[in-house]
Amino acid sequence: MAGFHFAFDLNHFRLLDPRQDFYADPFWTLQRTAIVSLFLFCAGLGQAAALDAGQGWPRFWRRWAQVAGCALLVSIGSALMFPRSWISFGVLHGIAAMLILARLAAPLGRWLWPLGALAIALPAVWQHGFFDSRWSNWVGLVTHKPVTEDYVPLLPWLGVVLWGLAAGQWALARRRALLSGPLPRGLAPLALLGRWSLSFYMVHQPVFIAALTALGALGLTGR
User: Fold this and answer.
1) CA separation for the pair 20, 11 (Å, rounded)
2) How far apart are the first and last CA of the chain?
3) Model pTM?
4) What is the maximum span of the chain, computed from C-alpha positions, in angstroms?
5) What sign does the dihedral 34-36-39-40 (CA atoms) show?
6) Cβ–Cβ < 8 Å for 154, 95
7) By CB atoms within 10 Å of each CB, which of 49, 62, 131, 164 scores lowest?
8) pLDDT per residue over 88-145, tens digit each?
9) If you count DSSP H runs as helices and E runs as strands, how many of each does the chain have, helices first?
10) Does residue 20 contact residue 11 with C-beta atoms inside 8 Å?
């Protein structure tokens, strides 16, 4: 994710030659799909672990408020940087909504698999113009992708979260060591990032952008 965003920033500041099309080139769009899929699968997996650990609704809402608050900051920051394509429902907005739905759906157990498949398939077989406005495109049944820097609607992405939840429930019931066993020492830095994933997500882009802006002020970029 950080590498992808840094490449995006380099392109935005005209430091990539030739210029890249992050919105249409499969080299970049497939990377984004893989990154978002991993994000949301892990979010579902994390909900399975949290429920297994006995996380109650009060603690859930405290964490949810952090995600929702960060989503609001992303919208504000993107509106300042990209006023014509600001983020109204990006990955953090999607996660905030999907975490609630996933927690409510958790008792469905094995039915999470077909429900997730339905969520993934539905936008491919049915769309409607009603969902094309910025006020309704968060559902995902759009006839065309909105102009925005990040777009992670409920459909089809809720299906990935539900599959992560189902996979987590399966692993905790049958292969518990996969999620609760000790990590190899070499993976400790990744575990640290995992514990502070939201903080890292919020901090890395401002750091990249500030650094490249400083280079621009020194006349070291092509802008």
Assistant:
1) 6
2) 24
3) 0.91
4) 58
5) negative
6) no
7) 62
8) 999 999 999 999 999 999 999 999 999 999 999 999 999 999 999 999 999 999 999 9
9) 9, 0
10) yes
